[in-house]
Write a structure and sequence with these properties.
heterodimer; A: globular; B: mainly alpha
Chain lengths: 551, 310
């Protein structure tokens, strides 16, 4: 293949519209096969307000911005940039895109990424009557009101409380080049979120006239370094350098072809026979060899692999039992002998790679790097004995649940052995198909279950706010009032130091109560031909080909 | 004949409708739904999504609506592949799977039938043992092992074909042989045993006694009679192979229809589950219908008309 052309592999792409239920490229490129917890690569067909490059903000369409003292009002000044159809990218495009993503009838899966914007959540929850939106009515007790229509429960709108998207949402184009954003509450990582696909602008002139704009390459108008010229579903996507891109002089690749290859071993075979230059997934068994030969690179990835414990169930309601399980795991053994992808044993929950309050510092290292020792069998045994199960005597047999995958199975088998050998307790392994596993997790129909979390943005909050009481992703039954209060405090605090202090304190509570057993911090191995230079993949898993070239 | 066809077509439609109904209700018994994610979506967003796809309607209404649309040929929007309909998915995937399937079936017929005949004619000879060995291999080696073996030898080792992908004829060869592996073996065994049986028939002895050449005996008299079992299995085989294989399409990165039989269930993509199931069952009953029609042509004793009793 010629210079400047690149062949890349990804698993599946489901949708290109940045706010229609699915997503723009990057998230639809989920590692569905291997992991389940989403976050994949992207080619940034759209350029948002700014791009985050691990810690510092790289201006994109916005050339500058000011933030008010209360950190709630943002004023973005846009540069001269153009859509692929030649029309300028304006603040109106941003305003339109955000409101479109929030409108309830569009039903965007990632609308919650815009809940930070004032009025965003209320609008997304509103009820549409005719062309107007209303707040759902409540009964005397404050419960949302519904009525029966046939066999269907329909929410009742409160016709006195209209939500007017042109007035009641905190995003407005003051003119073509100025975008004003007003937030619900100070959100320190808001700039980081502007690089998220849902917050990228769409070309209002095109999208407002054609609901299906993203399903056809001809109407798929974008503003990024590359433009899509061909899309054969489940086969390939072809991107070429975008001549209307504002920073086109920096773009060196002329063409990128994405092949949708679901099987990692197939991707490797294609890479080895020269059909691919790079691939997003690498078969674990081949990884050490490929790293040694320089064909694979292990990149950091902002995520933690852990086990959930159902704290509502005996004997797991005893923190000593949970700790005993935690300490009797040999993480170094698991990462070196099983996963082999350079994963780091997790001795805390929030992974490395997130900046703390002081610039250049790392949240993980700033306060307490580890909360326990790996493979601490003596303490584990003592704790289990204190809980009334000396040497595991009388400990009820339980099941360890994971979603069907060979990788999860190998790890579960190893941990099963460790618990048996170190603590004398027996668990049986239970593998479930994805949907069944999620259902059992959600309904606390398990004892111990495998889980993983990949950050949405570069802030500890993306890992910590999920464990609040009743949190949608808190599948443990765990609840701690002080923890909830600290997370609420962090959300309301604008002072970076006080905010981080609250988040550190929250993590400490989580690591004291141990509703979860961290195992390792993820990494992101990629196959990369030695000829590719300047490849960039963020720790959130977003691939950026803008500056890459074939050497 | 017309009456027979009419009756068969009606019963075919009925079968497909029963399959559609059974699938509709069975898939809704599966735990979880199309919007379950490891990162759970907020309940209000799930509500918006359910409203968009009318999943908040009572089940009977969803069923009636689906059936109405089905009769108009509309299989609905996919929940997973946003902006695409199930009709789109089948329109895109089926031609690819069918093209690959056609090559595989041709290979199976061109290799399996002669192998079977050869084995039967040389019964108990080394040729027969070889045929039976090949057949055993073809039946017992799973296609994912076959796929990887072929890829390893011919793409990575000999570099004669690309490892995977779709678009050129060279990329058809390995997946077609993988797909044809089992049918070749199956046909070879079937033809061999049918042939052995036919060769024992009296009319063959008669033909030989008449002094006909062995070639004429085999090709004119025996072959036609072994075609009936072959056609019987070819019908469902074509339906199965033309609609794609999950394993083969995954390993060779082929954008066919096969993947959806598995992925749509994992994704709880209700409309896609129904769409591909209905499509496959329709094709299957249609192929069986064709098989029945072919019988009449192959075997003069089979006639689909009521004879007038004079």
């Amino acid at each position: 293949m010629g210079k400047g052309r690149l062949l890349y592999e990804e698993s599946t792409v489901t949708c290109l519209d940045s706010c229609i239920p699915g997503l723009i490229l990057r998230w639809s490129f989920c590692h569905t096969v291997s992991e389940g917890s989403c976050s994949g690569g992207n080619v940034q067909p759209g350029d948002g307000a700014c791009c985050d490059r691990s810690g510092y903000y790289d201006p994109a369409i916005a050339k500058s911005w000011t933030i008010s003292a209360d950190r709630k009002t943002y004023l973005f000044t846009l540069r001269d940039a153009y859509w692929t159809n030649g029309t300028p990218v304006t603040a109106y495009d941003f305003e339109y895109a955000w409101k479109r993503a929030l409108s309830p009838e569009i039903a965007s899966e990632y609308a919650y990424q815009l809940y930070y914007v004032y009025g965003g959540e209320a609008f997304n929850k509103s009820i549409k009557v005719g062309s107007k939106y209303y707040v759902q009515a409540v009964d005397a007790k404050g419960n949302p009101l519904t009525k029966k229509e046939g066999d269907k429960d329909v929410p009742v709108p409160d016709l006195k409380k209209e939500i007017d998207p042109s007035k009641n949402i905190g995003v407005r184009a003051l003119n073509a080049k100025t975008l004003k954003v007003y937030l619900q509450s100070p959100t320190v990582y808001f700039l980081n979120l502007t690089a998220f696909p849902t917050l990228m602008p769409v070309c209002k002139a095109v999208v407002s006239k054609n609901d299906k704009w993203a399903s056809d390459v001809k109407t798929y108008v974008t503003n990024g370094p590359f433009r899509l010229t061909e899309w054969s579903h489940n086969e390939k996507m072809v991107f070429v350098k975008n001549p209307t891109y504002w920073d086109k002089d920096k773009v060196k690749l002329t063409k990128i072809t994405y092949y949708m290859v679901e099987d990692e071993s197939t991707a490797l075979a294609m890479f080895q026979s020269g059909q691919l230059d790079a691939a997003a997934n690498v078969p674990v068994s081949e990884l050490p060899k490929l790293v040694a030969s320089g064909d694979a690179q292990i990149l950091p990835y902002l995520g933690t692999y852990y086990y959930l414990v159902n704290v509502t169930k005996k004997p797991f309601n005893d923190v000593r039992v949970r700790k005993a399980l935690l300490l009797a795991i040999n993480r170094v053994g698991i990462t070196q002998a099983i996963t082999q992808g350079g994963e780091v044993p997790a001795l805390a929950y929030v992974p490395y790679g997130i900046a703390d309050a002081v610039p250049g510092s790392d949240f993980r290292k700033a306060s307490q790097e580890s909360f326990y020792k790996d493979n601490d069998i003596t303490t584990a045994k003592a704790l289990l004995a204190a809980a009334g199960y000396p040497n595991g005597k009388g400990f009820p047999a339980f099941t360890l649940l994971y979603n069907t995958s060979n990788a999860h199975k190998s790890i579960a088998e190893a941990i099963q052995q460790m618990w048996k050998k170190n603590l004398g307790i027996t668990c049986t392994l239970k593998s479930e198909e994805w949907g069944v596993y999620m259902d059992d997790r959600q309904h606390l129909n398990y004892s111990v279950a495998r889980a993983g979390w990949i950050g949405d943005y570069m802030d500890p909050n993306t890992f910590l706010d999920m464990w609040v009481t009743g949190g949608g992703n808190n599948d443990t039954g765990w609840s701690n009032k002080s923890y909830d209060a600290l997370i609420a405090k962090a959300k309301a605090t604008t002072d970076p130091k006080a905010r981080m202090a609250a988040l550190h304190a929250a993590e400490k509570i989580l690591m004291t109560d141990m509703p979860i057993l961290p195992i390792y911090y993820y990494t992101n191995p990629v196959l990369l031909s030695k000829g590719i230079k300047n490849f960039y993949q963020s720790t959130l898993g977003f691939v950026d080909w803008k500056n890459a070239y074939m050497g | 004949m017309l009456k027979f066809i009419l009756r068969r077509v009606l019963s075919m439609i009925l079968v497909v409708l029963i399959v559609a109904s059974a699938t509709f209700f069975m898939m809704r018994l599966l735990p979880s739904g199309p919007f379950a994610r490891e990162k759970k979506l907020p309940p209000e967003i799930i509500k918006n999504l359910e409203a968009r796809y009318h999943l908040d309607d009572p089940l009977w209404k969803q069923y009636v609506d689906y059936m109405k649309n089905l009769l108009r040929g509309d299989l609905g929007p996919s929940f997973k592949y946003k902006n695409r309909t199930v009709n789109n998915i089948i329109n895109d995937g089926f031609p690819v799977s069918a093209a690959l399937g056609l090559v595989a079936v041709l290979l199976a017929v061109a290799i399996g039938i002669p192998l079977g005949i050869w084995g039967a004619l040389k019964q108990n000879g080394w040729q027969d043992s070889l045929v039976m060995f090949v057949a055993l291999l073809g039946v017992s080696v799973p296609n994912f092992i076959m796929a990887v073996l072929l890829m390893f030898i011919f793409a990575l080792g000999l570099h004669v074909v690309p490892a995977a992908g779709w678009g050129s004829f060279k990329q058809v060869i390995l997946p077609a042989f993988t797909l044809a592996g089992y049918p070749i073996a199956f046909l070879a065994r079937l033809v061999r045993s049918s042939m052995l049986e036919v060769l024992r028939q009296e009319y063959i002895t008669t033909a030989r006694a008449k002094g006909l050449s062995e070639r004429l005996v085999i090709f004119r008299h025996a072959l036609r009679n072994i075609l009936i079992p072959v056609v019987t299995v070819l019908g469902p085989l074509i339906a199965a192979v033309f609609t794609g294989s999950f394993v083969v399409e995954k390993i060779f990165a082929i954008p066919g229809l096969g993947r959806y039989y598995v992925t749509s269930i994992n994704d709880r993509d209700y409309t896609t589950i129904l769409g591909v199931t209905i499509f496959y069952s329709a094709l299957l009953v249609f192929m069986n219908f064709l098989v029945d029609l072919t019988y009449a042509w192959l075997d003069p004793r089979i006639r689909y008309v009521e004879r007038k009793v004079s």
